[in-house]
Amino acid sequence: MKVDGKTRVCALMGDPVEHTLSPLVQNTFSEEEGVNAVYTALRVKKGDVRTAMEGAFALGMQGFNVTVPHKEAVIPYLSGIDPMAESIGAVNTLVKDEEGYRGYNTDALGILRQIKELDTDIKGRMVIMLGAGGAANAVLHAMYSLGIKGAYILNRSVEKAEKKFGNDMRNVILPLEGFSEIPGDQYFCVQCTSVGLAPDSDAAPIEDPGFYKKISRAVDVIYSPFETKFMKLVKEAGGQAENGLKMLVYQAAESFKLFHGVEVKEESIRRAEEKIKDAMGESSS
Questions:
Q1: Whose CB has fewer CB within 10 Å in the chain, the N or C terminal residue?
Q2: Which domains occur in the chain, in start order?
Q3: Catalytic residue numbers?
Q4: Could you report the per-residue pLDDT of 4-59, keeping only the tens digit for each?
Q5: Model pTM?
Q6: What is the 3-state secondary structure (H, E, C) of the chain?
């Protein structure tokens, strides 16, 4: 990889960031597409978001991806916000402009593409979503764009979930232990919390096996570990589950386009997926 005075610098902003494979994905895209750019990960603690953004702008950094816990915290400090990101209420991509950083949300596009590729039809159905953080905003937006009837939203803090999603009467807000109030089974579920994220790989947001009997198909937005405890519990109950690897790569391709104005080719996306699997020891070869 060539690095010189013209190299664009981008990064992931979050806490923690030690687990992230975003630099592997973005740097693969740069190599494959011939873009003079490098990408790293920067740990930014709560309360330091504004300082970090101002310093990055002064240094001329081209852009950021934003992860837990900053997807909403960065919004007050943006120079502007894309209409879709504004309607979602969270951003995961910042792109430098003349006055600062403009916010976008490519998470919604990433999970939308991943769900579309699943052998499942959620149109007209009730679904289950775990969590009410920044990722949940994008996931819910994507599922409603696919025509779901409504969502059972389970969260540790009902008050937080009500504040964010309670104004939409299609949403049913429940505490995590309230899953027994959900009638029937065969639900599509998206796990949007950070519970189970490495290194706390032995945790799941809900441990009760009874919950997992309600799920036929699930996506965990976490991709490290490659198989979370949530995914294992879904499978043990007879359902199908996959991680957030595809969401990661698809949203990254959209972010790369925003950073550099270059469309990522399908073969570059597949190459990034294979590199991630190799890095995690999950290669099928």
A1: C
A2: 8-105+246-279 (3.40.50.10860), 109-243 (3.40.50.720)
A3: 71
A4: 999 999 999 999 898 889 999 999 999 999 999 999 999 999 999 999 999 999 99
A5: 0.90
A6: CCCCCCCEEEEEEECCCCCCCHHHHHHHHHHHHCCCEEEEEEECCCCCHHHHHHHHHHHCCCEEEECCCCCCCCHHHCCEECHHHHHHCCCCEEEECCCCEEEECCHHHHHHHHHHHCCCCCCCCEEEEECCCHHHHHHHHHHHHCCCCEEEEEECCHHHHHHHHCCCCCEEEEEHHHHHHCCCCCEEEEECCCCCCCCCCCCCCCCCHHHHCCEEEEEECCCCCCCCHHHHHHHHCCCEEECCHHHHHHHHHHHHHHHHCCCCCHHHHHHHHHHHHHHCCCCCC
